[in-house]
Design a protein that fits this description.
Radius of gyration: 18 Å
CATH class of the largest domain: Alpha Beta
CATH topology of the largest domain: Thiol Ester Dehydrase, Chain A
Protein name: UPF0336 protein
Pfam families: FAS1_DH_region (PF13452)
Structural class: alpha+beta
Largest sheet: 5 strands, antiparallel
Organism: Anaeromyxobacter paludicola
CATH architecture of the largest domain: Roll
Number of helices: 4
Strand content: 25-35%
Shape: elongated
Number of domains: 2
Distance between the termini: 6 Å
Strand order of the largest sheet: 1-3-4-5-2
């Protein structure tokens, strides 16, 4: 079943996310190959960059605080894309859905204490052969209205 192009421009959100220092640290450690949290001892094979975990290093940096790893945005910015994929109006069979790709354009750094708001819009619906391509573009801004990331998320739905 093809996704109806009448859903182009359909919007999702806004979704809010409060950024916490420990969430930023846990993500950085996990991405570096470690195990986040205190339940397991030991350091990751390659420690994360100090700006991602160390308050003193962050305070001494041009950013003035710890900052989020670039891919941390997947934690909060994916929500409108996920909402579109399960939206009954689009009629997508999740068993046939494959997450195809994502890309990010970064803006202001994300810091502990930021409150982010993410909105999304269906910006592409295309049928190719027996495949439907769904593209959702998301924009996340901080409490000052500064754009922190724009994401483009694409799913393929097999026919």
């Amino acid at each position: 079943m093809a996704i109806d192009r009448k859903h182009l421009g359909r919007r999702y959100g806004p979704y809010r996310y409060a950024v916490g220092l420990e969430k930023l640290r846990e993500f950085a450690v996990a991405v570096a190959g470690g195990i986040p949290g205190s339940a397991f001892p030991g350091e990751p094979p390659q420690p994360p960059h100090p700006l991602l975990v160390d308050e003193a290093a962050g305070a001494a940096s041009p950013y003035g605080s710890v900052v989020a790893a670039p891919t941390f945005c997947a934690v909060f910015a994916m929500r409108p894309f996920a909402a579109a994929c399960v939206d009954p109006a689009l009629g997508i069979d999740l068993v046939r859905l494959v997450h195809a790709e994502q890309e990010f354009e970064y803006g202001a750094p994300i810091r502990p204490g930021d409150v982010l708001e993410t909105t999304g819009e269906v910006t592409g619906i295309e049928a190719r052969s027996r495949l439907d391509f769904l593209t959702v573009t998301t924009t996340s801004v901080n409490q000052r209205g500064e754009r922190v990331v724009q994401g483009t998320w694409t799913a393929i739905v097999r026919g």
